[in-house]
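Hi there. Long-time user, first ticket. I'm pasting a complex I've been working with (about 916 residues overall). I'd like to know whether the download I got is complete or cut off, because the file seemed smaller than I expected. Thanks.
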Amino acid sequence: MSDAPIVVKVQRQDKPGTAPYWQTFSIPYKRNMNITSVFQAIAGNPVTVEGAKTTPVNYDAACLEEVCGSCTMLINGKVRQACSALVDPIREEHGDGPITIAPMSKFPVVRDLIVDRSRMFENLKRIRGWIPVDGYYNQGSGPQMTPEKQDMRYALSRCMTCGCCLEACPQFTMTNSFVGAQVFGQVDYFNAHPTGKIDADERMEQIMGDGGISDCGNAQNCVKVCPKELPLVDSIGRMGRAATVYSLKKFFKK
Amino acid sequence: MSAKRVIVVGGGLAGLAAAMKLAEQEIPVDLFSLVPVKRSHSVCAQGGINACNDVARQQGYSEWEHFFETIKGGDFLANQPPVLEMARMAPDIINLLDRMGVPFNRTSEGYRALRLFGGSLFKRTHFAGATTGQQLLYALDEQCRRWESEGRITKYEFWDFLWPVRDDGGRCVGIVAQDLRTMQIRAFRGDAVIMATGGNGLIFGQSTMSVICTGSASARCYAAGARLGNPEFVQVHPTAIPGEDKCRLMSESARGEGGRIWVPRKKGDARHPNSIPEEERDYFLERLYPKYKNIVPRDIATREIYYICEQGYGVGPAPSQMVYLDLTEKATGIKYEVLKKRLGGILEIYEKFVGVDPLLEPMKIYPAIHYSMGGLWVDFARDDQPVEHAGRAVGGGGMKKGDPRNQMTNIPGLYAAGEADFQYHGANRLGANSLLSCIFTGLYMGPSVKNYIESQKGSAAEISAGVFDARVREQQAQMERLLKASGDQNPYMMQRELGRTMSDNCTIIRINKRMKQSLALIEELKERYRTRLGMPDGSTWSNQTLAFTRSLWDMLLLSEAITMAAIARDESRGAHFKIPDELETRMDIPLDDRALKRDDEHWLRSTLATFVNGKCELSYEPVDISLARPEKRDYGKTTGAGPAKTAAAPAVQPIEPAVVAK
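Hi, the file is complete. Here it is re-exported in full:
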């Protein structure tokens, strides 16, 4: 493994509405570095390769171990978490050349690599993303559940709202209304719970309207980029079928 | 809906539990968080959450047993009534989480599965794979989203808490906070304020904590007059993956499910671990602790790992020696697929960051800073109703539900909950008790906070603007000073120096001579901050460096309190392990014998740290031991020469109700 300095080319932007620009940094090589520790090294001495004093790179981060979903960005064109983007495997694949780092392209930039992902959270409100319990007093156990059902729910429960699936999806753009795999996975998750099922119809209404399930083009990019390997395509399939059933139900109820 | 409002600072398990409980009681909540609340540090918790349960009960377990395990695990430093209350409510909390949809692992019949965890011989830990904190946090996040959609909770995400506002009478009546995007600084009125802002791992440089865990919010309350309790008690978790940016936690559940810690019997054995046969391995925790084996409490496991490496048996070149945590089928006898199911999340972390499948090759781990037992001092109202056990009254009770004093700091109207408080874990926390204490404190304090705000005449909304404006102006001025700082000291490099000295001198082993050096460095860093700080980013939009630089000062204040309290406490208790100066280099003496012993006669008391005229002042208060008399904290260690220094041993017998293990 080469120990040539680690060079990163970062797409920066000072605030919304201003033009983005590139800056290149070089830091001494150390084994087992990830992109977040590269940013930490830059922050200790924020100088570009041309010797210009600049500011530390601004980016969302928290857990540094790929469970919080904060540090989503484009690294060598691929959407992923910066904390689990290790330099050594990147070098194995791409050589020692500069690593290109850019913010997600489907969400408005706030500054540098920080983007505004509130759209994902607003959608979770729309689809009633919670179990409608009566209250917080002790009323006994929840429903009994088979290990298989728990397995299915557990897999979907790991969605950390990182946005990788939306970034990779050809149907999702910054300005359209498509809700994307993130929402379909969560609808599937809440509908799969005996109490959650109470709101299933309402959730169906939400994902059958504008920007809903019929806008999915089946590219299957989502499942390829999901860092938690959520079975998103299974969820989308189930939601498609549920939507059909639901619209028939509605039709015959009239 | 109530005309009064409550501010909750911190959106982890404790903050969300408090917010949702208040919302249920029709009290509007303003919820502040540095990050979208589901990205809070609680998301990193892995192993599980403790509670007595039907199966364990039939094997001889009880809420009392859980209480006593916790008290003993904490080396008898925790006030007892709050811990009893927590153990009692734990089964209710599991039921509630279950109803809220947490995907707990299930048995074949469909009931909630259980696993073994540190400090107990009973299976009383409920779990969702090996990512339990994530599932619990998300369930509370979902509930708060529901209240948000109904207008009862208003979220202020990407906001930094700056200061608690106190009125002329000293009551807390709101906060000053900053929008980290627009950088606007403004005041918010609140009839009560709850600090649920977690721990302070970043003070130690690398830790298992998230980058937002600076302890700044607590430190700001401390600077504003709130006492700290037991700041010197910090937990070093035995098993983490060392790293450049953080130490990644390898959950205790790996050991609870059968993982075994070992080192080669031969020093410097360079063979691949899979080639080292059983007889040439030293499973040292099993050797030393035949009863608890690999799941002895964390402080004990950490010291044993430290000591085995100090003696040169660690793996890899010194000083970065590590030990093996073995989950292979060869060592555990458990099939690949079974462990994959129960530990998936943590196995993934190891594989992603180290590149090795831990089910095929033993993991290499080393202890890392993990949790703050100490924190903001909080009060409690004891329920004097006698507690019955096995038909006998054994003295005081738990807490009085709904009493406004529960979880209140020494500043009226300012509360603390979760890791940010000091109350539940004494000198050492048992695994899977933090997810419990966070949710417990958040829920339990709901009625207390409600009663407090209803008892106050008038509301925060009616207070004149003067006191709020003054605090906002102060924060504004401080921000402007920081933005203009043009010295030669980079704040990130200064924080690294702080982390290094605190890690080197103030964690597993504590020696006064070395800690005094750290104190001197902290003083020097404060001086450099005051006179030579250079702000790398002067922007007034979305400036992360500003927030970091501001919290560097708070981290210095907190480090000072931690180090001073550790120097003052001349005994060993739980995670605090004091070696006298003159024995600093005596590696020939076994580690346990080098240290001071627990000294109940002089030190069975909580440390209080108060910020007075810019300095940390220490004082002490007695511990409430009304329910169980302290006894020797024995986990059945089989070796050890006589103690080098004996302090007054507690001359009491353990009382009967405390010893129910079958």
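A couple of notes from our side: Chain A has nine helices and seven strands. Chain A touches chain B through 69 residues (CB under 8 Å).
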